[in-house]
Amino acid sequence: LVILALCRLADPISFSSVFPYLPEMIEGFNVPKDEVGRWAGITSAVFSLSQAATGIFWGRASDRFGRKPVILIGMICVMSTGLLFGFSQNLAMAVVARSLAGASNGNVGIFPKP
Q: What is the pLDDT of residues 73-96, one digit of tens each?
């Protein structure tokens, strides 16, 4: 039960942990100052859009293969895409990494409800 609670806690952390440093990271990609806010918003929003788009897929995968393997795969994907985002070399790579992080984070719906 503790492991499920930690997995449940990891999902919102993967969404919100980038907010404090995202504008500085985007500035580091040589984006003009007046464009940083827009790209920070796009980079943040693409996570939620991808998560919403893949939520049904994760639910169906859970029904077909079982909850435990799907949660494990989801957590491994969240970890991998978080590293990919952290090591992004340019803006396009960062946006794609956040999109993949959101797509792999769609397993929120398969966790048991308290």
A: 888 888 899 999 999 999 999 999
